[in-house]
Amino acid sequence: MEKVRLSKLMSARGICSRREADVYIEQGSVYVDGQPVRELGTKIYPWQEIVLDRAAQIRQNQQVTILLNKPVGYVSGQPEPGYKSAISLVNNDSHFHQDRSSLRFVPQHLKNIAPAGRLDIDSQGLLVFTQDGRIAKQLIGEYSQIEKEYLVRVSGNLTREGLALLNHGLQLDGQALKPARVSRLNQDQLRFILQEGKKRQIRRMCELVGLNVTGLKRVRIGQIRLADLPEGKWRYLGKNESF
């Protein structure tokens, strides 16, 4: 049996992301079969035991994940000049007063935090920021199976055949899309449930069946719902919550 890079194996087991694994290895926080490993690029057998030391486990448990109800007009990631970043909305004043977590906002919670998924500038709703590589991998990793649910307002005439194509049969960028669950809520609103997130996917899917998207709101990621979180407000992912 061939050996595997330690950081890759740590990521595959859900211990942390590869980037985080390299940091822990350099810090001497990773033990393989009870022995510390400090050399980057170390390879081990897939059956060997990997453990983080107590200090690293504590640091992991202190990492935060933030849930924001992003308004239209903000970009998910690093903005170009003239645009506003959604992370700029995360501050003490905009913290949802009904947040049930025990955490209090401190600037340290924004260190090394990144969006786990995109929501384009013209869309609103649930956007996740996290310091935890395990959560990022769960939401946007190559093999993620997490559902995302959207309420989509459209204009145009949706035929029965068009609705069937939205559920399965469309291609984007020369690749077949995964099956989706798309249903009509009323004359001008659809519900989309997807397990992938190509750039502007819903808008482009709708264009292919003759529809124009006039409003798009993400209301759920996995088991986490937007619920009563007001627009422009944010809260922490609770310790008893998971996607």
Tag the structure with descriptive keywords:
243 residues, alpha+beta, Structural Genomics Hypothetical 15.5 Kd Protein In mrcA-pckA Intergenic Region, Chain A, Alpha-Beta Plaits, Pseudouridine synthase, 3 domains, nine-stranded mixed sheet, 18 strands, 20% helix, globular
| CATH level-4 homologous superfamily of the largest domain | Pseudouridine synthase I, catalytic domain, N-terminal subdomain
Major β-sheet annotation: 9 strands, mixed
Strand content: 25-35%
**Number of H/I helices:** 6
Global outline:
globular
Q: Which structural class do you get from the secondary structure elements?
A: alpha+beta
CATH class of the largest domain: Alpha Beta
From the 3D coordinates, which CATH architecture of the largest domain would you assign? 2-Layer Sandwich
